[in-house]
Structures are given as C-alpha cells and as structure tokens.
Design brief:
By secondary structure, this protein is of the alpha+beta class. Helices cover about 30% and strands about 25% of the residues.
C-alpha cells in the first residue's frame, strides 16, 4: 500500500519490529438495514416499538449491513473476499503468494465447528506454504491477530515476509431480532490487513498492551450453544469503557507516544457514544479518533480493519504518522498496538 509522502520527521524511537501495512481489504454484505426498517422488524418480532431517531441516539448507527447466505455471504466467504482484496491492494500476485508466511482468521461466529474457516480460506487464496490458524477473541480478535502476526514475523520470518490477518463475523447470526438491546448494535462484515516485515524501516511496532480481567465480567454478554446473545448492556459498556482507556494509555506509554501527539486512533466500533468521552479521558484528540460505526454497525472482529481501511482512504495518513489499534472483547479483555507507518 502506498501513501503520500510527507515532510514530517518523526523523532520517536526505532520500532520494536519493522512492519509495514502492505495492503487492506474490506467486505460488506450487500443488504443494508436502516434504523426505520430495523425498528419495524424488532417490533414485529415481539420487541418494543421505537423510532429510527431513538436507535440512532442510543448507538450513533444509521444503517448496518446484514449478510445473506443466499448470496453466499457466510463468515468464511466474507473473510476470503476481504483477504483477497488485501492481497490485491498490496500487489501480491495470486499465482505466486509464497511470501505470505502466516494466515490468521479471527472470528467468533464460524459457519461450522470443524473444519475451521482458515482451511477453506488458505485453499481458496492459494496460500499453500503458510502457517495458518483461527483465533477466537470476539471483538479484539483482529488486534490480537496483528500482535500475534508481528511476533511470528519477527521470530520466524525474514525481511519481506508477510502475514495476512482477517477479522470476519456474522454477529446477526447469534442475535434475536426481537431483542432490542442487541439488534440495534450488531452487524456483519469482514476486514483484512496484509502485514510485511520490513527490516531497517522506521515503520513498525512501537508498543503494545494486552489485558484480561480473568473473566470476572464474563456474564455481561453470553451466547450459549444453540441460543442467541444475552447482554447486560449497561454494565458491559461501563466495563469496556474503563478497560479501553487504561489499555490505550498503557500501549501509548509503552510506545513512547504522548496521547495528545497520537496521529490516529482506530478503536473497535462498538457504539458511537463510547467515542464521545474518549478525548477527555485519554488525552487523545477527538479528530484523531476514527468513527465509522454510523454506516457499518458493530461486526465484532471486523470493525478495526474496516475503520483502518476507511482511515487510509480518507487520505489523512502520512509517512511517520502513529496509529493506535485497539480491540476490546466481552469477558472482559482486549489488546492495543501502536504502529508508525
């Protein structure tokens, strides 16, 4: 992936791992559900009657994509399509992708228990010579995957080797349409990033942080086998907000980047109301925070790569910029990474 040159000179420390974002890809289902249509569906399925404005006021979402199996929009296919787009964006020859050494497929809504999505993805994308595995870490899955990929490239890769990290979820498949609290938030989609080891480059991993509170808040969001999601939205939001702030500040501290000097912040797109308090609580500038949930909804592991792609497409990213990626999961846990591009 190429970005416009800049005269800005970074004075930050050398990266822990030389790493470039070589390509990004996104796949969104074709069907879009606006708030008015959603409110009607919720009421028709036994939920409360609400207005489109009420849904927006609670979430900041105006529309969300819903997948259709009739269109082949399974979790696996969404991930494959996003992964292929990332490879194409990086200029990887699909007939000779041998430099892709690692493949990580992050998802909590697999189409079947076994085999996992990564096997079909690896075969379809012709990634025959890479080490591949699935990763289930809910909404933090993609960022967990980026941290894992950076370690694998550093320890087992060579200069120029790549890792493809995919985040894909069909969260609607575990949501009861009549349940107001979950229906207004969740969506479907996929995103992917191709990471390339770049020895001697100023771009790369500056710092990271990962937390888990040992499952003490695990009852705030539960999906039993064969059932739909049960969510304690109020307490989940409070726990996630506390962890988001602490995790971001720790990652930035480890990277040696003062919050007010961070160029871009890409958080998991959980609820737009969550973003409104972040500048005051973290010191991160409001204009640095990427907010696209209004048109993508919350598709769990897919939202961070989708927001990262939107950031690059905006033309705001310049060489030497710093980017925070952060994912937060039910349980409660999460991970954050600071990159220089």
């Amino acid at each position: 992936m190429t970005i416009e040159s800049s005269n800005r000179v970074s004075e930050l420390r050398p990266p822990l791992v030389g790493l470039e974002i070589a390509g990004l890809g996104v796949e969104l289902p074709q069907r879009r559900i606006n708030n008015h249509a959603l409110a009607m569906m919720i009421h028709a399925h036994g939920g409360p009657m609400a207005t489109a404005q009420a849904v927006y006021d609670l979430t900041g979402i105006r529309e969300r994509p819903w997948a259709s199996e009739k269109l082949g929009e399974t979790t696996t296919n969404l991930g494959i399509w996003a992964g292929r787009a990332a490879l194409e964006n990086a200029g990887i020859d699909p007939g000779n992708p041998d430099r892709v050494r690692f493949l990580i497929f992050a998802s909590s809504t697999q189409d079947r228990r076994l085999p996992n999505a990564v096997e079909e993805t690896q075969d379809t994308l012709n990634l025959r010579k890479c080490f591949s595995f699935d990763l289930g870490a809910a909404c933090s899955g993609f960022v967990h995957g980026v941290i894992t990929a950076s370690s694998l490239l550093s320890q087992q890769g060579e200069d120029g080797d790549c890792a493809l990290v995919i985040g894909a979820d069909r969260v609607r498949s575990i949501v009861d349409t009549g349940d107001f609290d979950t229906s207004i938030l969740f969506a479907d989609g996929a995103g992917a990033a191709l990471l390339r080891r770049s020895d001697g480059s100023s771009a790369g991993l500056l710092g990271r942080a990962a937390w888990d509170n040992a499952g003490s808040d695990r009852d705030f969001f539960i999906v039993e086998h064969g059932s739909t999601a049960a969510m304690d939205g109020k307490h989940l939001a409070q726990a996630i907000s506390r962890m988001a702030v602490s995790l971001a500040l720790e990652a930035l501290s480890n990277a040696g980047v003062p919050p007010e000097q961070l160029d871009h912040a890409v958080f998991h797109q959980s609820n737009d109301r969550f973003f409104e308090k972040l500048p005051k609580r973290t010191g991160i500038r409001g204009e640095a925070i990427v907010r696209i949930i209004d048109r993508i909804g919350n598709s769990s592991a897919a939202t961070v790569p989708q927001a990262l792609k939107a950031l690059y497409e905006s033309g705001r990213v310049k060489p030497g910029d710093t980017i925070l990626l952060e994912g937060l999961k039910v349980g409660i846990g999460g991970s954050a990474i600071v990159l220089r591009v």
